[in-house]
From TrEMBL:
Keywords: Acyltransferase, Fatty acid biosynthesis, Fatty acid metabolism, Lipid biosynthesis, Lipid metabolism, Transferase. GO terms for molecular function: 3-oxoacyl-[acyl-carrier-protein] synthase activity. One of its GO terms (biological process) is fatty acid biosynthetic process. Involved in the type II fatty acid elongation cycle. Catalyzes the elongation of a wide range of acyl-ACP by the addition of two carbons from malonyl-ACP to an acyl acceptor. Can efficiently catalyze the conversion of palmitoleoyl-ACP (cis-hexadec-9-enoyl-ACP) to cis-vaccenoyl-ACP (cis-octadec-11-enoyl-ACP), an essential step in the thermal regulation of fatty acid composition. Belongs to the thiolase-like superfamily. Beta-ketoacyl-ACP synthases family. Pfam families: ketoacyl-synt, Ketoacyl-synt_C. It comes from Oleidesulfovibrio alaskensis (strain ATCC BAA-1058 / DSM 17464 / G20) (Desulfovibrio alaskensis). SUPFAM superfamilies: Thiolase-like. GO terms for cellular component: cytosol. This is 3-oxoacyl-[acyl-carrier-protein] synthase 2. Its EC number is 2.3.1.179. Gene3D superfamilies: 3.40.47.10.
């Protein structure tokens, strides 16, 4: 498919590593961990008691208190992050062409915290004490909706919900919309906040969360390591301003990366487990590479889904070997979740931001806690820490429950 060239002209992140993109990136490449004991609620009776929480965010800097009280936490993160994004991109939605600016975000679970709060109120005080703001607070599309109201964007307001691939799917469809000329610019990425009693107990019941490192939280997320025992739940938001090259050049924007490929597939196999042969993961990667018109050997870095679960990390490694063959051993593979935890629907957004910064800064983040090699995971996972290296292409992977797979291919901007 030919069409317009698509570039990234703004980056923003609110993560367990920091409350803005600069701090998050600095701590990521320094190898610091944003994972600690759960403080959001009393988790003393839970078998998994660690999480990647956002810490010390001053919401008042972005959202008036009355307005913030009418938003679930995931929407608060989305709006605050969007305001950071517009400042970083030095972009104001043009009033005369506001219909050509869209908001397309990924959200996995939405307002779980709001559901829990109002269910408790319903049980304790009865149906007449439920707020009229309950439904608007919890629905997932309120994140892009509130952003659109804040910035004046009148194009599409859509939320993508595809479990842990939500953020990457959102970027992929934003890329496609700009490429075909439907929009000039799209605010895209992901937002999520489900560190709640139901969220943690639900994933624990699936035996998906790490339980072995409650006394050493920074060691709990161990992607590709032989001793990995599950993912660490996280929260936050990661947003990109995706823009046509014509629009970016017309306003003299700084360009951080070019988006050149998007792949999406489904395993059609199992509710929570990936295919044993990793065929779906591999197919999504190949789709992104083929759309870019390059060969697998041209890709030099992978931002891995890398959840720290036994099945995902093994399958992703197999998929990389299928796609890249002998070149797989030469790839630099980063697993950001080793330091942030798994941000679920926001993961692809945050990792998309980090992928662009990998290209823009010439620094490849390492993978924390990769200490004990696994014979099924035997590629270069950057266990020695971040490295100065000028990558030309970064492939960012996201895979989710329901067998959903999404991959974005970013290219270094060379003018």
């Amino acid at each position: 498919m030919t069409g317009k060239r698509v570039v990234v002209t703004g980056l923003a992140a609110i993560t367990p590593l920091g409350n803005n993109v600069e701090t998050s990136w600095e701590n990521l490449i320094a190898g610091k961990s944003g994972i600690g004991p759960i403080t959001r609620f009393d988790a003393s009776e839970y078998t998994s008691r660690v999480a990647g929480e956002v810490k010390g965010l001053d919401l008042g800097e972005y959202i008036p208190p009355k307005q913030a009280r009418r938003m679930d936490r995931f929407t608060q993160y989305a709006v605050a992050c969007a305001k950071q994004l517009m400042k970083h991109a030095e972009y104001t939605v043009p009033e005369e062409t506001a219909h050509r600016v869209a908001c397309l975000l990924g959200v996995g679970l939405g307002g779980l915290e709001t559901i829990e709060q109002f269910h408790t109120k319903l049980v304790e005080a009865g149906p007449n004490r439920i707020s009229p703001f309950m439904i608007p607070q919890l629905i997932s599309n309120m994140a892009p909706g509130q952003i659109a109201m804040e910035i004046g964007a009148k194009g599409g307001n859509v939320v993508m919900t595809s479990a842990c691939a939500s953020g990457t799917h959102a970027i992929g469809y934003a890329f496609t919309e700009v490429k075909v000329g439907r929009y000039d610019a799209v605010v895209t990425g992901g937002a999520e906040s489900t560190i709640t009693p139901m969220g943690v107990s639900g994933f624990t019941a699936l035996r998906a969360l790490s339980t072995a490192s409650n006394d050493a939280p920074e060691k709990a997320s161990r992607p590709f390591d032989a001793n990995r025992d599950g993912f660490v739940i996280g929260e936050g938001a990661g947003l990109l301003l995706v823009e046509s090259l014509e629009s970016a050049r017309a306003r003299g924007a700084t360009i951080y990366a070019e988006i050149v490929g998007f792949g999406s597939s489904d395993d059609a196999f199992h509710m929570t487990a990936p295919r044993d042969d990793a065929e779906g993961m591999a197919r999504a990667m190949l789709m992104a590479i083929e759309e870019a018109g390059i060969s697998p050997a041209d890709v030099d870095c992978i931002n891995a889904h890398g959840t720290s679960t036994q099945l995902n990390d093994k399958s992703e490694t197999l998929a990389l070997k299928k796609v890249f063959g002998d070149h797989a051993s030469k790839l630099r593979i980063s697993a950001n979740k080793s330091q942030t935890g798994h941000l679920l629907g926001a993961a692809g957004g945050v990792e998309g931001v980090f992928s662009c910064l990998t290209l823009a800064t010439g620094t490849v983040p390492g993978t924390a806690n990769y200490e004990t090699p696994d014979e099924d995971c035997d590629l270069n996972y950057m266990g020695g820490g971040s490295e100065s290296y000028q990558a030309q292409y970064v492939l960012s992977n996201s895979f989710g429950f329901g067998g959903t797979n999404a991959c974005m291919l970013f290219k270094r901007w060379e003018g």
